[in-house]
């Protein structure tokens, strides 16, 4: 049985419904990211699971025990859930070792509050040797790692992390993220990470739950939600998407860019196809369709160009494409589309 099962959870603040029937299961030892735009209810969901908020309806089952349900509300401290807040919230007057040892009190490891266990936990987060430092002597990333060690100390059933990397600067974020992920996996912890950063969700989590307007609209592996988004909005939210008008006839998608293979079977009809910028390949001018560079975006590790593709019938279609090299604006290039597209019925 999954250590965390959330079923049909609803929650309103006054007249404002915030959670509108959330379903989510997190398998044992997995890290799930709850990904969604600001205000969609991510933190509220975490607070319901932690027991800081009462749900109006639905249930939360932790390690087989219903902690939230009709007539049931187990107090937060009795839930065996650990919370890592946005900024680690370490006790400033306690050393790193004392902060971690604090997490051991009252937990399963209560009888083993030994220095050895603290060292073991610090080792897990890559901070062995930092026992005697004070929190103020640590970087923001190190503080977050201590907070994770403290959270793991009582061997909770589930670790909840609320935007734990958002206060870190970009250069640090990726490495702290990787360390925290490794520590959670090494501890075999089941965890839920709340984030509005799609790159963070896709690169860190085993399961991504995309949340919108108080419901989980899709949950799956990072590859599943990226390659097989449930709708155009999910496609746009989990990455850059090229959305084009498309008609399905006999299992083939007809688009202004030519006919393309389908990622999944679909009934005949009119709708939109979604492809990713990395499926748009540049070819020498004269091959494929002709396109003009209309804008460029430089990200450091790579770059994108906005193209205007001239399609049959003189239709001009805006398309985004990844590039490595220099591409002056106004340049004319050839493009070819590779790989399958996802398709959604409805008006273009
Ligand atoms: N205690 C509260 N009382 C009243 N309204 C609240 C309360 N907590 C949250 N809300 C409202 O519920 C909605 C969802 O908030 P929540 O913090 O869960 O969203 P979120 O997805 O975590 O957003 P963010 O990414 O910005 O933190 C917001 O409109 C917020 O104003």
Explain what this protein looks like in three dimensions.
It is an enzyme of class 7 (translocase). This is ABC-type quaternary amine transporter. It holds the Pfam family TOBE_2. Its EC number is 7.6.2.9. GO terms for molecular function: ABC-type ferric iron transporter activity; ABC-type quaternary ammonium compound transporting activity; ATP binding; ATP hydrolysis activity. This protein has two domains: about 5-230, 3-Layer(aba) Sandwich (Rossmann fold); about 240-345, OB fold (Dihydrolipoamide Acetyltransferase, E2P) (Beta Barrel). Helix 2 runs parallel beside helix 4 (about 140-150) and helix 3 crosses helix 4 (about 140-150). The radius of gyration is 24 Å and the shape is globular. The protein has a six-stranded mixed sheet with strand order 7-8-9-3-10-11, with helices on both faces. A five-stranded antiparallel sheet has the order 2-1-4-5-6, covered by helices on one side. Strands 14-13-12-15-21 form a five-stranded antiparallel sheet, with no helix packed on it. The chain is built from eight helices and 21 strands. It starts with a strand and ends with a strand. The protein has helices at about 40-50, 95-105, 115-125, 140-150, 170-185, 200-205, 220-225, 230-235, and strands at about 5-15, 15-25, 30-35, 55-60, 65-70, 70-75, 80-85, 160, 190-195, 205-210, 215-220, 240-250, 250-255, 260, 270-275, 280-285, 290-300, 305-310, 315-325, 330-335, 340-345. By secondary structure, the protein is an alpha+beta fold. The model is unreliable at about 105-110 (pLDDT under 50). Bound molecules: adenosine-5'-triphosphate.
């Amino acid at each position: 049985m999954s250590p965390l099962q959330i079923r049909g959870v609803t929650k309103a603040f006054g007249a404002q419904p915030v959670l509108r029937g959330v379903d989510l299961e997190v398998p044992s030892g997995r890290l799930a990211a709850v990904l969604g735009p600001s205000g969609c209810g991510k933190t509220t969901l975490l607070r319901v699971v932690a027991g800081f908020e009462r749900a109006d309806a639905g249930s939360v089952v932790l390690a087989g025990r219903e902690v939230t349900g009709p007539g049931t509300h187990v107090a937060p401290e009795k839930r065996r859930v650990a919370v890592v807040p946005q900024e680690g919230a370490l006790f400033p007057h306690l050393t790193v070792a004392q902060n971690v040892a604090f997490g051991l009190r009252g937990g399963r490891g209560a009888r083993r509050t030994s220095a050895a266990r603290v060292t073991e936990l610090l080792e897990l987060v890559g901070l062995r040797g930092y026992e005697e430092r004070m929190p103020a002597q640590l970087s923001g990333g190190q503080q977050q790692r201590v907070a994770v060690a403290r959270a793991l100390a009582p061997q909770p059933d589930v670790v909840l992390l609320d935007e734990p990397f958002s206060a870190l600067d970009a250069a640090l974020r990726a490495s702290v993220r990787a360390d925290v992920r490794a520590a959670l996996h090494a501890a075999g912890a089941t965890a839920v990470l709340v984030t509005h950063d799609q790159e963070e969700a896709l690169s860190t989590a085993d399961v991504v739950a995309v949340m919108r307007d108080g419901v989980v609209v899709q949950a799956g592996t990072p590859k599943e939600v990226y390659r097989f988004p449930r709708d155009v909005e999910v496609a746009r939210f989990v990455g850059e998407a090229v959305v084009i008008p498309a008609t399905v006839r006999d299992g083939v998608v007809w688009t202004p860019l030519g006919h393309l293979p389908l990622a999944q079977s679909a009934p005949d009809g009119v709708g939109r196809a979604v492809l990713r910028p990395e499926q748009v390949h540049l070819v020498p001018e004269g091959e494929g369709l002709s396109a003009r560079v209309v804008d460029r975006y430089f990200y450091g590790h790579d770059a994108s160009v906005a193209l205007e593709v001239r399609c049959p019938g003189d239709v001009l279609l805006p398309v985004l494409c990844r590039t490595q090299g220099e591409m002056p604006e106004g340049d004319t290039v050839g493009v070819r589309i590779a790989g399958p597209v996802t398709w959604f019925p409805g008006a273009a």
